[in-house]
Structures are given as C-alpha cells and as structure tokens.
Amino acid sequence: MSIESQHIQPCLWFDDQLEEAARFYTGIFPNSSIGHLSRYGEVGHGEPGTVMAGEFTLDGMTFRGINGGPEFRFSEAVSFSVTCRDQSEVDYYWDSLSDGGEESVCGWLKDRFGLSWQIVPTRLYELVTDPDPARAEAATAAMLGMRRIVVAELEAAADAAVRPPAG
C-alpha cells in the first residue's frame, strides 16, 4: 500500500533509533521495505547524515517515523496487534519481536525500542467468543494466565469447561 493510498498512517517517535528500528521490523514482517529516509544536513538539530525522519512498510502497511529525541516514550496506551494463523506464527512473531525487549501478559510484549505489540492467534478470538459461555469464560481465564498465547492450552481449557445444567 503506497503512502498515497493509505489515508491514515501511524507515525512513531523514536529517540534516535528510527533507522535501526526500520531494519529490525522489516526483517521480521513479510512484504516489508524501508522507504525514503530523510537525513540531517549541515543545518538542523541532528548530527549531519543521521536520520531525521522516514517511512517503512510492514506487511503492506506504511509507517512514518521521526527521530524526535528523548522527550517522549512509547507506552502500552498504543500497541500494534499481529493476528496469527497458528501457533507457529505466534511463536515466530513472539520470539522475533521480544528479542531484546520484554514479555508481558495476555499476548503482549514490548520490543527492544519499547513499542508494545499484541501477538494474537485467530483461535483466541474464536474461543473467547464461543457461543457456549462456559467455554468462552474458560478460554478467557486461560488467556489471562499466559504470557505468550498457547493455542493448545486455550483449547484444553475450553474443552474442559463444564456447562452448568439448565434451569
């Protein structure tokens, strides 16, 4: 998706790691590339030749970024959710994005730049919205006790749920 066709784009504020982050992210996601990187010249606030701003595409979605300095940091108030087909995708994105970062709970992690990600298998959505409330509740309870989401454990919890007798 080109910048012209993507009407709304996330813009990420880095201290001075935009180029490093763009290389890190594009190395993880398919259909990704680094676009134009604007560099400081002799005039400006940054060291000449260092990246001031730029864009990169992750799996077809274009992001803008700036090296704005240390004034602002990422927080969990904004995160990016990666929907995964199966456990192998969950494991790939979890291991790749958490490398140098930190694991949190319920499928959340922070990468080495402090950006929050949610690594979510589609099966989680299916189980927590199961028409049987006991199964949905059991899957939700299992998810709340996890760091990385493990599909087999979600399914086992849902399958073990006992439906209360009617009436």
Automatic annotation (TrEMBL):
Pfam families (alphabetical): 3-dmu-9_3-mt
Protein name per UniProt: VOC family protein
Domain of life: Bacteria
InterPro entries according to UniProt: 3_dmu_93_MTrfase, Glyas_Bleomycin-R_OHBP_Dase, PhnB-like
Coiled-coil positions: none
Span of domain PhnB-like: 7-120
